[in-house]
Structure formats: structure tokens, C-alpha cells
Amino acid sequence: MIRFLFRALGLLCLAAAFVFFVYDGTKSIAANAVVFTKVDEVWTLVHAASLQQLQPFIVEHTTPWLWDPVAVAALNAPTFVAFAIVGAILVLLGRRKKPLIGYDR
To answer: What is the largest CA-CA distance in the chain?
Structure first.
């Protein structure tokens, strides 16, 4: 049951990655330059208050260096890349186990 949920959420994330890839592609064609939608732009559109609360939460509950190089880089990444990575991880977590061959347990 949980593997089905992981696979379903993974496929939804991969579909969202494809949608953002097409969206960024059409914006790039219209602008005659490479244009990416960043994760923090999408997060601001969805729920800006939680994005503002993210930095104090990370700095208080973890080490401060985790915010600047790691979280800032993740928030500045293209949205389709972030959704593709999360979707691929979820699909891999939800895959079926391979059947055992012989007596290997």
C-alpha cells in the first residue's frame, strides 16, 4: 500500500516536472534566452508565509551552514529539476522488489 502511494506521488511529481519544463521552454522561446522558474518563486506563489519561516527553522534546529550553501542552492534550482529529483526518488522507493532466484534469502 505504501509503495503504491510512493509510486503515485512520484509519478505526479514527474508530471509536474514535465509541466514546468514545458512552461520554462515556452518562456525561453518567447524571451530568446534561457529562462528558468526557481523553486522559491513557485513556493512564494503557493504559500509565502511558510517560505519566510523556513530560514529561522533551519538555523534554529540544525547547523547554520545548512541554510546558506544547501537550502539556498535548493531554492534557486529550477523547479522542473527539483520535481524530477523528488519524483525519481519516490518512484525508486516505491518499486516492487525483485523476485529471489534460487535459495538466496
So the answer is: 60
